[in-house]
Amino acid sequence: MTYLRLGSDTDLLAVRSDSRTMSDQYKCPICLTPMQQPAQQISGGEHIVCPRCGEYQITRRVKTVIQKQLESDHKARAVLSHAVRRMQEASPAPPLITDELANQLLQSGSLPSPAQQAENLILWLGGNLVAPGETVELDSRPLTAIIGAIDESGVEFILDHRVRVWVIWGHFRALGAGK
Ligand SMILES: [Zn+2]
Questions:
Q1: With 90 as the cut, is the pLDDT of residue 10 above it?
Q2: pTM of the model
Q3: Residue 91: helix, strand or coil by DSSP?
Q4: CA of 149 to the centre of ligand 1 (A)
């Protein structure tokens, strides 16, 4: 039998908080997608590189204030993940997600309609295809947040039912591409 002797209550707390951080580190605190690298600890929070939400910073307070809500609310996770992606499009610096901002985004944000999601996907394809006829790799994790789908199956739905080849070409022509 092994006995573990701990010097004080503080040591015990440190051990507990370390083991909790280790298991949380590899999942995005917003969308819960497994991450390839652990969160980087920064002053007051964490720097996250998530395959779905992208790169952002989050204060530790957000985790305590809204993480419970996010864990049980599939739609809230998608709303916040989409909002975080949009913020990265607007500015090159990774956005800092505070609890005030997260609450504001959750209250005012909503997911785009399927038609808007298809439009977002077409715009993304337009920005990522070098030339007509080129192929582009589709990773449904980032696309979920980029187009504003609820989850990866939502991306597949948009690809299957909304974005047909003729639609893409129709839009490319409308945008002046593919001539
Ligand atoms: Zn994420």
A1: no
A2: 0.75
A3: coil
A4: 13
